[in-house]
Design goal:
By secondary structure, the chain is of the alpha/beta class. The protein has a single domain (about 5-195, about 210-255), classed as 2-enoyl-CoA Hydratase, Chain A, domain 1 (Alpha-Beta Complex). The chain is about 45% helix and about 15% strand. The protein is built from eleven helices and ten strands. The mean pLDDT is about 90.
């Protein structure tokens, strides 16, 4: 496969996948999904690859979904092809499912800005290693969105329900040190040492039983309270409802116009309707 928006390289025992859209802060579109998915399958089928590393080019790890593509599918009055948005989100969900179930350790080498779908991605990885300058933000609430790929549940598992709610409600930025203290990041390293440090972790994992690591990963993932499939389906339903809200339309408009969104008040504060006219 010819990679356009990513690169894939086998180095030692590691299969390195690099998101390579630095001008877009490595935002995810369908091309990225296809290429990362292909690289994951290649890594899984290569016995010489003992661990997979996902990282980003430039100053960002991943800023989440490419909102430019989403904006093009929704018109100013809120009408538009939401089916194409849901298709993209379901493809993204399938990619995260592959990361989560891959029978090899997946390491996020977090080199910079990590937002929204980037948070959901690292929440599905097995180990997260970040540089000191990396920043983290759930960011969805800033533009009237919400997690829809199992990320809300995974974030709460990693940092606890109260911290997850804080991150999701406020959409604030957090440092790598704060995320390490909260439990989302395993190690924080100096900016120039990320590759060397991750290479060392890969070398260590290469000394372990590959079947044992695969079974440990499955054991931990399967043993949590709520199956990921159930959480992902539930969040997708919630997100689908959000796609029909005025907040969604306003958030997209504000993003395009480079301003703070002015979300309308809820007509029924006690409940959120499945659809809005």
């Amino acid at each position: 496969m010819r990679y356009e928006s990513t690169t894939y390289e086998v180095r030692g025992a590691g299969g390195w996948i690099t998101l390579n859209r630095p001008d877009k802060k490595n935002a995810v579109d369908l091309t990225v999904i296809d290429e990362v998915g292909h690289a994951l399958i290649s890594a899984a089928s290569n016995p010489n690859v003992r661990a997979v590393v996902i990282t980003g080019a430039g100053t960002a790890f991943c800023s989440g979904a490419d909102l430019t593509s989403v904006s093009e599918a929704v018109s100013d009055d809120g009408s538009g092809d939401r089916d194409s948005i849901l298709h993209f989100l379901k493809r993204f969900e399938e990619l995260l499912r592959t990361i989560r179930t891959l029978p090899k350790p997946v390491i996020a080498a977090i080199n910079g800005v990590t937002c929204a779908g980037g948070i959901e991605t690292i929440a599905c990885c097995d180990l997260n290693i970040a540089v000191e300058s990396a920043t983290f933000s759930d960011a969805h609430a800033r533009w009237g969105f919400m997690p829809g790929l199992g990320g809300g549940r995974e974030l709460a598992r990693a940092v606890g329900t109260f911290k997850a709610k804080e991150m999701m409600f406020t959409a604030d930025n957090y440092s790598a040190t704060q995320m390490a203290a909260a439990g989302l990041v395993n190690h924080v390293v100096s900016d120039g040492q990320l590759v060397n440090f991750v290479d060392g972790v890969v070398s260590k994992l290469a000394l372990r039983s590959p079947r044992g690591l695969a079974r440990m990963k499955q054991m931990i993932n399967d043993g949590m309270d709520m199956p990921w499939d159930v959480a992902a389906r539930y969040e997708m339903l919630c997100l689908e409802a959000q796609l029909h809200s005025r907040d969604f339309v306003e958030g997209l408009a504000a993003f395009q116009e480079h301003r703070q969104p002015a979300f309308p008040r809820m007509r029924h504060p006690g409940m959120v309707r499945a659809r809005e006219d």
